Amino acid sequence: MSKEEAIIRLIPAFRQYGYEGASLSLLSKASSLGKASLYHYFPGGKSEMAAAVFEYVGNEFGDLVLKALRGENKPFVKLQAACNSLREFYDGGRNSCFLTIMSFGSADNLFHEQVKARLRQIIEALTKVLIEAGIEADVAEVRSQDAVAQIQGALILVRILDDTEPFNRVIKSLPELLLRL
Amino acid sequence: MSKEEAIIRLIPAFRQYGYEGASLSLLSKASSLGKASLYHYFPGGKSEMAAAVFEYVGNEFGDLVLKALRGENKPFVKLQAACNSLREFYDGGRNSCFLTIMSFGSADNLFHEQVKARLRQIIEALTKVLIEAGIEADVAEVRSQDAVAQIQGALILVRILDDTEPFNRVIKSLPELLLRL
DNA sequence: GTCTATATAGGGATAGAC
DNA sequence: GTCTATCCCTATATAGAC
Question: Is the pTM value of this prediction over 0.70?
Answer without folding.
Answer: yes
